[in-house]
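Revision sheet: structure tokens.
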Amino acid sequence: MIIPIEISQDLFASRAELSPQRSRDLLNSALSRCEEWENAGGGIPATVVKAQVLAETATEEYISSVRTSLWKKAFSTLDLVWKDHHEAEIL
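Predicted:
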């Protein structure tokens, strides 16, 4: 079972990592954990965190076409949440 703190730990570690390759590896690990969490019924929180991980992965990407693809995936992930739960209120 995925515990969201594990995803957070990967994200924070990737931000502090000096090695670009190790940072990407940590982000890929976080993304894999997000997908596992989503598949286990993590709901909206899992999807929103997945979009965050995709966005952070995009900022670390050097190849523009891959970066663009990751941003599109991040926004389409959030779009799915919005379409499924458009009645959400801002408190």
